[in-house]
Amino acid sequence: MLPGKSKIYEKNGDDILFGFGQLIGILKKNPKKIVFTEGEDARILEAASRLLASNFLHPILVGSEDKIFEAAEECGFNIRGAEIIDPAKYDKMDEMVAEFCELRKKKGVTPEQAKEILLQGNYFGTMLVKMGVADALLGGATYSTADTVRPALQLIKTKPENSIVSSCFILVRPGATGDNEVLAMADCAINIKPTEDELVEIAGEAAKCAKIFGVDPRIAFLSYSTHGSGAGEDVDKMRNAAMKTKQKYPDLPIEGELQFDAAVSPRVARTKCPESTVAGHVNTFIFPDISAGNIGYKIAQRMGNFDAYGPILLGLNAPVNDLSRGCNASEVYSMAIITAALADANAGAGASA
Ligand SMILES: CC(C)(COP(=O)(O)OP(=O)(O)OC[C@H]1O[C@@H](n2cnc3c(N)ncnc32)[C@H](O)[C@@H]1OP(=O)(O)O)[C@@H](O)C(=O)NCCC(=O)NCCS
Which of 191, 197, 206, 350 is most buried (CB neighbours < 10 A)? Predict the structure, then answer.
Protein backbone atom coordinates (compact mmCIF):
# COMPACT_ATOMS: atom_id res chain seq x y z
CA MET A 1 0.00 0.00 0.00
CA LEU A 2 1.21 3.48 -0.81
CA PRO A 3 2.10 5.69 2.12
CA GLY A 4 0.80 9.21 2.73
CA LYS A 5 -2.21 8.44 4.88
CA SER A 6 -4.20 11.35 6.20
CA LYS A 7 -7.00 11.37 8.73
CA ILE A 8 -8.02 14.89 7.83
CA TYR A 9 -10.63 13.94 5.29
CA GLU A 10 -13.46 11.74 6.44
CA LYS A 11 -15.49 9.85 3.88
CA ASN A 12 -18.68 11.68 3.01
CA GLY A 13 -20.69 8.79 1.69
CA ASP A 14 -22.36 10.42 -1.31
CA ASP A 15 -20.74 11.63 -4.47
CA ILE A 16 -17.65 13.34 -3.13
CA LEU A 17 -14.85 11.31 -1.70
CA PHE A 18 -13.32 13.98 0.52
CA GLY A 19 -15.39 14.91 3.54
CA PHE A 20 -13.64 18.31 3.36
CA GLY A 21 -14.63 18.70 6.99
CA GLN A 22 -11.61 20.73 8.05
CA LEU A 23 -11.54 22.90 4.93
CA ILE A 24 -15.25 23.71 5.26
CA GLY A 25 -14.74 24.54 8.95
CA ILE A 26 -12.07 27.08 7.99
CA LEU A 27 -14.27 28.58 5.24
CA LYS A 28 -17.27 28.94 7.54
CA LYS A 29 -15.24 31.31 9.70
CA ASN A 30 -14.14 33.33 6.70
CA PRO A 31 -16.25 32.72 3.55
CA LYS A 32 -14.49 33.46 0.26
CA LYS A 33 -15.83 34.84 -3.00
CA ILE A 34 -15.17 32.56 -5.98
CA VAL A 35 -15.75 33.65 -9.54
CA PHE A 36 -16.97 30.98 -11.97
CA THR A 37 -16.09 32.00 -15.52
CA GLU A 38 -18.73 29.77 -17.11
CA GLY A 39 -21.82 30.85 -15.16
CA GLU A 40 -24.27 29.58 -17.76
CA ASP A 41 -23.00 25.97 -17.65
CA ALA A 42 -25.41 23.49 -16.01
CA ARG A 43 -22.62 21.80 -13.99
CA ILE A 44 -21.51 25.15 -12.59
CA LEU A 45 -25.12 26.02 -11.72
CA GLU A 46 -25.65 22.72 -9.92
CA ALA A 47 -22.45 23.19 -7.90
CA ALA A 48 -23.38 26.83 -7.19
CA SER A 49 -26.81 25.79 -5.89
CA ARG A 50 -25.15 23.34 -3.47
CA LEU A 51 -22.60 25.93 -2.36
CA LEU A 52 -25.34 28.52 -1.79
CA ALA A 53 -27.31 26.04 0.30
CA SER A 54 -24.20 25.30 2.41
CA ASN A 55 -23.43 28.97 2.93
CA PHE A 56 -19.64 28.83 3.41
CA LEU A 57 -18.64 30.17 0.01
CA HIS A 58 -19.99 33.03 -2.06
CA PRO A 59 -20.26 32.19 -5.80
CA ILE A 60 -20.01 34.89 -8.46
CA LEU A 61 -21.35 33.66 -11.79
CA VAL A 62 -20.09 35.31 -14.98
CA GLY A 63 -22.60 35.43 -17.82
CA SER A 64 -25.91 36.82 -18.98
CA GLU A 65 -28.43 37.06 -16.14
CA ASP A 66 -31.30 35.94 -18.39
CA LYS A 67 -29.41 32.92 -19.70
CA ILE A 68 -28.20 31.94 -16.21
CA PHE A 69 -31.71 32.07 -14.67
CA GLU A 70 -33.18 30.31 -17.70
CA ALA A 71 -30.61 27.48 -17.50
CA ALA A 72 -30.99 27.16 -13.70
CA GLU A 73 -34.78 27.00 -13.98
CA GLU A 74 -34.63 24.46 -16.78
CA CYS A 75 -32.38 22.19 -14.72
CA GLY A 76 -34.22 22.82 -11.44
CA PHE A 77 -31.30 24.41 -9.52
CA ASN A 78 -31.98 27.07 -6.92
CA ILE A 79 -29.33 29.77 -7.35
CA ARG A 80 -31.09 32.47 -5.33
CA GLY A 81 -28.41 34.58 -3.60
CA ALA A 82 -25.71 34.03 -6.25
CA GLU A 83 -24.06 37.17 -7.53
CA ILE A 84 -24.30 37.34 -11.31
CA ILE A 85 -22.04 39.65 -13.31
CA ASP A 86 -22.56 40.10 -17.03
CA PRO A 87 -19.43 41.46 -18.76
CA ALA A 88 -21.68 43.17 -21.34
CA LYS A 89 -23.45 45.18 -18.59
CA TYR A 90 -20.70 45.58 -15.98
CA ASP A 91 -20.93 49.05 -14.44
CA LYS A 92 -17.19 49.24 -13.67
CA MET A 93 -16.09 48.19 -17.18
CA ASP A 94 -14.27 51.50 -17.84
CA GLU A 95 -12.20 51.04 -14.67
CA MET A 96 -11.51 47.41 -15.65
CA VAL A 97 -10.45 48.39 -19.17
CA ALA A 98 -8.07 51.02 -17.81
CA GLU A 99 -6.49 48.55 -15.38
CA PHE A 100 -6.24 45.88 -18.10
CA CYS A 101 -4.47 48.33 -20.45
CA GLU A 102 -2.06 49.29 -17.67
CA LEU A 103 -1.29 45.61 -16.94
CA ARG A 104 -0.75 44.84 -20.64
CA LYS A 105 0.88 48.14 -21.63
CA LYS A 106 4.13 46.44 -22.68
CA LYS A 107 2.02 44.59 -25.27
CA GLY A 108 0.46 47.86 -26.50
CA VAL A 109 -3.15 46.82 -25.88
CA THR A 110 -5.62 49.59 -26.81
CA PRO A 111 -8.85 50.30 -24.83
CA GLU A 112 -10.89 49.02 -27.83
CA GLN A 113 -8.95 45.74 -27.83
CA ALA A 114 -9.25 45.47 -24.05
CA LYS A 115 -13.06 45.94 -24.20
CA GLU A 116 -13.29 43.14 -26.76
CA ILE A 117 -11.05 40.79 -24.73
CA LEU A 118 -12.93 41.53 -21.50
CA LEU A 119 -16.22 40.37 -22.95
CA GLN A 120 -14.77 36.85 -22.67
CA GLY A 121 -15.60 35.19 -19.34
CA ASN A 122 -12.06 33.87 -18.75
CA TYR A 123 -10.42 37.32 -19.02
CA PHE A 124 -13.30 39.14 -17.30
CA GLY A 125 -13.35 36.70 -14.37
CA THR A 126 -9.58 36.95 -13.99
CA MET A 127 -9.84 40.75 -13.82
CA LEU A 128 -12.52 40.43 -11.09
CA VAL A 129 -9.90 38.61 -9.01
CA LYS A 130 -7.19 41.08 -9.92
CA MET A 131 -9.43 44.01 -8.88
CA GLY A 132 -10.33 42.33 -5.58
CA VAL A 133 -14.01 41.76 -6.41
CA ALA A 134 -13.42 38.01 -5.95
CA ASP A 135 -10.83 36.11 -3.90
CA ALA A 136 -10.24 33.31 -6.42
CA LEU A 137 -11.34 31.87 -9.76
CA LEU A 138 -12.53 28.50 -10.99
CA GLY A 139 -12.87 27.92 -14.74
CA GLY A 140 -12.27 25.36 -17.43
CA ALA A 141 -15.66 23.60 -17.63
CA THR A 142 -15.69 24.69 -21.28
CA TYR A 143 -12.40 26.60 -21.70
CA SER A 144 -9.21 24.58 -22.32
CA THR A 145 -6.47 24.54 -19.67
CA ALA A 146 -4.42 26.99 -21.73
CA ASP A 147 -7.35 29.43 -22.08
CA THR A 148 -8.06 29.27 -18.35
CA VAL A 149 -4.46 29.61 -17.27
CA ARG A 150 -3.18 32.20 -19.78
CA PRO A 151 -5.23 35.17 -18.42
CA ALA A 152 -3.97 34.36 -14.92
CA LEU A 153 -0.35 34.26 -16.11
CA GLN A 154 -0.80 37.58 -17.89
CA LEU A 155 -2.84 39.49 -15.29
CA ILE A 156 -2.56 37.94 -11.82
CA LYS A 157 1.06 36.91 -12.42
CA THR A 158 3.52 35.00 -10.28
CA LYS A 159 4.20 35.86 -6.65
CA PRO A 160 7.32 38.02 -6.19
CA GLU A 161 9.25 35.07 -4.72
CA ASN A 162 8.35 32.75 -7.63
CA SER A 163 9.74 32.64 -11.15
CA ILE A 164 7.07 30.35 -12.65
CA VAL A 165 3.53 29.21 -12.19
CA SER A 166 3.31 25.43 -11.87
CA SER A 167 0.67 22.97 -10.74
CA CYS A 168 -0.02 19.93 -8.66
CA PHE A 169 -2.71 17.29 -8.34
CA ILE A 170 -3.91 15.98 -5.00
CA LEU A 171 -4.87 12.31 -5.27
CA VAL A 172 -7.13 10.67 -2.69
CA ARG A 173 -8.02 7.01 -2.23
CA PRO A 174 -10.17 5.68 0.61
CA GLY A 175 -8.51 3.15 2.88
CA ALA A 176 -10.29 0.09 4.27
CA THR A 177 -10.13 1.49 7.81
CA GLY A 178 -11.61 4.86 6.94
CA ASP A 179 -8.28 6.64 6.51
CA ASN A 180 -7.60 8.12 3.08
CA GLU A 181 -4.32 7.88 1.23
CA VAL A 182 -3.44 11.36 0.04
CA LEU A 183 -0.66 12.00 -2.48
CA ALA A 184 0.64 15.04 -4.37
CA MET A 185 1.96 14.96 -7.96
CA ALA A 186 3.64 17.84 -9.83
CA ASP A 187 3.87 19.36 -12.40
CA CYS A 188 1.33 17.43 -14.45
CA ALA A 189 -0.35 20.33 -16.26
CA ILE A 190 1.58 23.55 -16.90
CA ASN A 191 5.33 23.50 -17.55
CA ILE A 192 6.05 21.32 -20.56
CA LYS A 193 9.77 20.75 -20.01
CA PRO A 194 10.87 22.28 -16.70
CA THR A 195 14.54 23.04 -16.15
CA GLU A 196 16.54 21.85 -13.14
CA ASP A 197 15.94 25.12 -11.27
CA GLU A 198 12.25 25.14 -12.20
CA LEU A 199 11.95 21.63 -10.74
CA VAL A 200 13.39 22.93 -7.47
CA GLU A 201 10.64 25.57 -7.39
CA ILE A 202 7.96 23.05 -8.40
CA ALA A 203 9.01 20.72 -5.55
CA GLY A 204 8.97 23.54 -2.98
CA GLU A 205 5.50 24.68 -4.08
CA ALA A 206 4.14 21.11 -4.27
CA ALA A 207 5.37 20.47 -0.71
CA LYS A 208 3.53 23.59 0.50
CA CYS A 209 0.38 22.52 -1.31
CA ALA A 210 0.61 18.98 0.07
CA LYS A 211 0.76 20.39 3.62
CA ILE A 212 -2.47 22.34 3.07
CA PHE A 213 -4.16 19.01 2.33
CA GLY A 214 -2.80 17.25 5.40
CA VAL A 215 0.16 15.50 3.75
CA ASP A 216 3.52 15.60 5.53
CA PRO A 217 5.57 15.71 2.32
CA ARG A 218 8.20 13.08 1.52
CA ILE A 219 9.47 13.99 -1.92
CA ALA A 220 10.89 11.96 -4.82
CA PHE A 221 12.37 13.31 -8.04
CA LEU A 222 11.22 10.57 -10.41
CA SER A 223 13.26 9.07 -13.21
CA TYR A 224 13.92 5.84 -15.09
CA SER A 225 17.04 5.55 -12.93
CA THR A 226 17.65 5.05 -9.19
CA HIS A 227 20.85 6.61 -7.85
CA GLY A 228 22.81 6.20 -11.06
CA SER A 229 21.43 2.84 -12.23
CA GLY A 230 20.71 4.48 -15.60
CA ALA A 231 22.32 7.37 -17.43
CA GLY A 232 21.14 10.29 -19.54
CA GLU A 233 20.31 13.99 -19.62
CA ASP A 234 17.01 13.59 -17.76
CA VAL A 235 18.66 11.44 -15.09
CA ASP A 236 21.23 14.18 -14.44
CA LYS A 237 18.45 16.79 -14.41
CA MET A 238 16.44 14.95 -11.75
CA ARG A 239 19.52 14.11 -9.62
CA ASN A 240 20.76 17.71 -9.71
CA ALA A 241 17.28 19.09 -9.01
CA ALA A 242 16.98 16.78 -5.97
CA MET A 243 20.37 17.92 -4.70
CA LYS A 244 19.54 21.62 -5.14
CA THR A 245 16.14 21.14 -3.46
CA LYS A 246 17.81 19.45 -0.47
CA GLN A 247 20.12 22.46 -0.17
CA LYS A 248 17.24 24.93 -0.43
CA TYR A 249 14.87 23.04 1.93
CA PRO A 250 17.14 21.16 4.38
CA ASP A 251 14.18 20.22 6.60
CA LEU A 252 12.23 18.43 3.85
CA PRO A 253 12.72 14.67 3.28
CA ILE A 254 13.84 14.50 -0.36
CA GLU A 255 15.27 11.73 -2.54
CA GLY A 256 16.32 11.54 -6.16
CA GLU A 257 16.76 10.45 -8.72
CA LEU A 258 14.41 7.54 -8.02
CA GLN A 259 12.33 5.11 -10.05
CA PHE A 260 8.68 4.98 -9.08
CA ASP A 261 8.93 1.49 -7.56
CA ALA A 262 11.86 2.55 -5.37
CA ALA A 263 9.87 5.62 -4.32
CA VAL A 264 6.79 3.74 -3.09
CA SER A 265 7.81 0.18 -2.23
CA PRO A 266 9.90 -0.31 0.94
CA ARG A 267 10.97 -3.72 -0.37
CA VAL A 268 12.28 -2.35 -3.67
CA ALA A 269 13.84 0.63 -1.88
CA ARG A 270 15.77 -1.74 0.43
CA THR A 271 17.30 -3.37 -2.66
CA LYS A 272 17.87 -0.33 -4.87
CA CYS A 273 18.83 2.35 -2.34
CA PRO A 274 19.10 0.82 1.15
CA GLU A 275 20.72 3.92 2.61
CA SER A 276 17.69 6.15 1.94
CA THR A 277 15.08 6.80 4.63
CA VAL A 278 12.75 8.53 2.13
CA ALA A 279 12.69 5.92 -0.65
CA GLY A 280 9.83 3.47 -0.20
CA HIS A 281 7.75 6.05 1.70
CA VAL A 282 7.22 8.84 -0.82
CA ASN A 283 3.92 10.74 -1.00
CA THR A 284 4.94 13.77 -3.10
CA PHE A 285 6.10 12.99 -6.63
CA ILE A 286 8.02 15.37 -8.88
CA PHE A 287 7.98 14.37 -12.56
CA PRO A 288 10.68 15.24 -15.12
CA ASP A 289 8.19 16.76 -17.58
CA ILE A 290 4.50 17.28 -18.33
CA SER A 291 4.17 14.09 -20.39
CA ALA A 292 5.35 11.88 -17.54
CA GLY A 293 3.32 13.85 -14.99
CA ASN A 294 0.09 13.96 -16.95
CA ILE A 295 0.25 10.28 -17.85
CA GLY A 296 1.30 9.37 -14.31
CA TYR A 297 -1.56 11.05 -12.46
CA LYS A 298 -4.10 9.67 -14.95
CA ILE A 299 -2.81 6.12 -14.40
CA ALA A 300 -3.24 6.60 -10.64
CA GLN A 301 -6.73 8.01 -11.26
CA ARG A 302 -8.01 5.49 -13.82
CA MET A 303 -6.24 2.30 -12.71
CA GLY A 304 -5.33 2.99 -9.08
CA ASN A 305 -8.79 4.21 -7.99
CA PHE A 306 -7.52 7.56 -6.79
CA ASP A 307 -9.74 10.62 -7.09
CA ALA A 308 -7.72 13.43 -8.67
CA TYR A 309 -8.21 17.06 -7.60
CA GLY A 310 -6.53 19.64 -9.78
CA PRO A 311 -4.62 20.97 -11.51
CA ILE A 312 -4.13 23.27 -8.54
CA LEU A 313 -2.07 26.19 -9.78
CA LEU A 314 0.96 27.08 -7.67
CA GLY A 315 2.92 30.31 -7.45
CA LEU A 316 0.19 32.75 -8.55
CA ASN A 317 -0.67 35.88 -6.57
CA ALA A 318 -4.23 34.56 -6.12
CA PRO A 319 -5.76 31.11 -6.58
CA VAL A 320 -6.98 30.27 -10.07
CA ASN A 321 -7.90 26.67 -10.76
CA ASP A 322 -8.75 24.72 -13.83
CA LEU A 323 -11.53 22.16 -14.25
CA SER A 324 -11.47 19.34 -16.72
CA ARG A 325 -13.91 19.90 -19.60
CA GLY A 326 -15.26 16.44 -18.78
CA CYS A 327 -15.97 17.42 -15.15
CA ASN A 328 -19.26 16.81 -13.37
CA ALA A 329 -21.02 19.03 -10.81
CA SER A 330 -19.48 17.17 -7.85
CA GLU A 331 -16.00 17.84 -9.16
CA VAL A 332 -16.87 21.53 -9.60
CA TYR A 333 -18.16 21.59 -6.00
CA SER A 334 -15.00 19.90 -4.67
CA MET A 335 -12.67 22.13 -6.67
CA ALA A 336 -14.55 25.23 -5.47
CA ILE A 337 -13.90 24.21 -1.86
CA ILE A 338 -10.23 23.53 -2.62
CA THR A 339 -9.90 26.87 -4.44
CA ALA A 340 -11.49 28.76 -1.55
CA ALA A 341 -9.24 26.95 0.95
CA LEU A 342 -6.21 28.03 -1.08
CA ALA A 343 -7.50 31.63 -1.02
CA ASP A 344 -7.63 31.33 2.76
CA ALA A 345 -4.09 29.91 2.88
CA ASN A 346 -2.91 32.67 0.53
CA ALA A 347 -4.43 35.35 2.74
CA GLY A 348 -2.74 33.75 5.74
CA ALA A 349 0.60 33.92 3.95
CA GLY A 350 0.08 37.63 3.33
CA ALA A 351 -0.18 37.27 -0.44
CA SER A 352 -2.23 39.73 -2.41
CA ALA A 353 -3.87 39.62 -5.79
C1 LIG B 1 0.58 27.46 -19.58
C2 LIG B 1 0.58 27.70 -21.07
C3 LIG B 1 -0.85 27.71 -21.52
C4 LIG B 1 1.17 29.05 -21.43
O5 LIG B 1 1.21 29.06 -22.82
P6 LIG B 1 1.14 30.36 -23.73
O7 LIG B 1 -0.03 31.19 -23.36
O8 LIG B 1 1.27 29.93 -25.12
O9 LIG B 1 2.44 31.02 -23.23
P10 LIG B 1 3.17 32.27 -23.75
O11 LIG B 1 4.59 31.87 -23.89
O12 LIG B 1 2.47 32.92 -24.91
O13 LIG B 1 3.02 33.20 -22.49
C14 LIG B 1 1.87 33.95 -22.14
C15 LIG B 1 2.23 34.70 -20.88
O16 LIG B 1 2.30 33.80 -19.79
C17 LIG B 1 3.60 33.84 -19.19
N18 LIG B 1 3.94 32.45 -18.85
C19 LIG B 1 3.96 31.37 -19.69
N20 LIG B 1 4.24 30.26 -18.98
C21 LIG B 1 4.39 30.65 -17.68
C22 LIG B 1 4.67 29.96 -16.47
N23 LIG B 1 4.86 28.65 -16.41
N24 LIG B 1 4.75 30.69 -15.34
C25 LIG B 1 4.55 32.02 -15.33
N26 LIG B 1 4.28 32.72 -16.44
C27 LIG B 1 4.20 32.04 -17.60
C28 LIG B 1 4.51 34.40 -20.25
O29 LIG B 1 5.60 35.04 -19.63
C30 LIG B 1 3.60 35.37 -20.95
O31 LIG B 1 3.48 36.56 -20.21
P32 LIG B 1 3.33 37.98 -20.99
O33 LIG B 1 2.20 37.82 -21.97
O34 LIG B 1 3.03 38.94 -19.89
O35 LIG B 1 4.64 38.21 -21.67
C36 LIG B 1 1.45 26.61 -21.77
O37 LIG B 1 2.60 26.41 -21.04
C38 LIG B 1 0.73 25.30 -21.96
O39 LIG B 1 -0.02 25.15 -22.92
N40 LIG B 1 0.98 24.33 -21.05
C41 LIG B 1 0.35 23.03 -21.16
C42 LIG B 1 -1.12 23.09 -20.81
C43 LIG B 1 -1.77 21.78 -21.06
O44 LIG B 1 -2.14 21.49 -22.17
N45 LIG B 1 -1.88 20.97 -19.99
C46 LIG B 1 -2.38 19.64 -20.10
C47 LIG B 1 -3.81 19.49 -19.70
S48 LIG B 1 -4.09 19.59 -17.97
Answer: 206
Residue nearest to ligand 1 atom 18, measured at CA: 153
Any atom of ligand 1 within 6 Å of the Cβ of 165:
yes
Residues 170 and 298 in one domain: yes
Q: 246 lies in which domain range?
A: 1-8+160-315
Which of 126, 164, 190 has most ligand 1 atoms within 8 Å of CB, for mutation? Answer: 190
129 shares a domain with 92? yes
Number of domains comprising the chain: 2
Residue 153 Cα to ligand 1 middle (Å): 7
Among 20-34, 38-52, 330-344, the least confident range? 20-34
Ligand 1 atom 43 nearest Cα: 189
CA 116, 133, 344, 172 dihedral sign is negative
Contact 257, 322 (CB under 8 A): no
What is the band of 324 on the pLDDT scale with cuts at 50, 70, 90?
Answer: confident
Query: Does residue 325 fall inside a structural domain?
Result: yes
Same domain flag for 94 and 197: no
Residues 179 and 144 in one domain: no
Give the pLDDT confidence score for residue 20 in this predicted structure. 62
Nearest in space to 353 (alpha carbons), one of 124, 206, 190, 159: 159
